[in-house]
Amino acid sequence: IEIKDFVILNLSCTVGHDTIIKDYCSFMPTVNISGEVVINEAVYVGTGAKIINLLEIGENTVVGAGAVVYKNLPANCTAVGIPAKPIKFHE
Fold first, then answer.
1. Are the CB atoms for 33 and 20 separated by under 8 Å?
2. 8-65 pLDDT, tens per residue?
3. Residue 75: CB partners within 8 Å, gap ≥ 6?
4. Which of 1, 48, 80, 82 is a Cys-bridge partner for 64, taking CB atoms 3.0 to 4.6 Å apart?
5. Is 17 a residue of the active site?
6. Nearest residue to 80 via CA among 37, 48, 33, 39
7. How many angstroms separate the CA atoms of 73 and 62, rounded?
8. Of 2, 4, 12, 17, which is the active-site residue?
9. Can you tell me the distance from the alpha carbon of 60 to that of 11, in angstroms, rounded to the nearest whole number?
């Protein structure tokens, strides 16, 4: 596990093996990140979200509360739902 600078891992978050979390990321309570995930810079993950293994989350992306991510997410988007899908893109 590699966790870079200025990362917030809130109460009861779990991070799986070989995961990389880059700078300025925030994880709200009870987020579950499976193994071999890459979380790029400035990602926000809402309460109770799940990120399945072998994925990459693009920089400046928001994952909504309770979302289940099982496919890579692009940069600069907001993704919600089960399964998580981008609903908005931003700069």
1. no
2. 999 999 999 999 999 999 999 999 999 999 999 999 999 999 999 999 999 999 999 9
3. 40, 58, 59, 60, 61
4. 80
5. yes
6. 48
7. 10
8. 17
9. 22
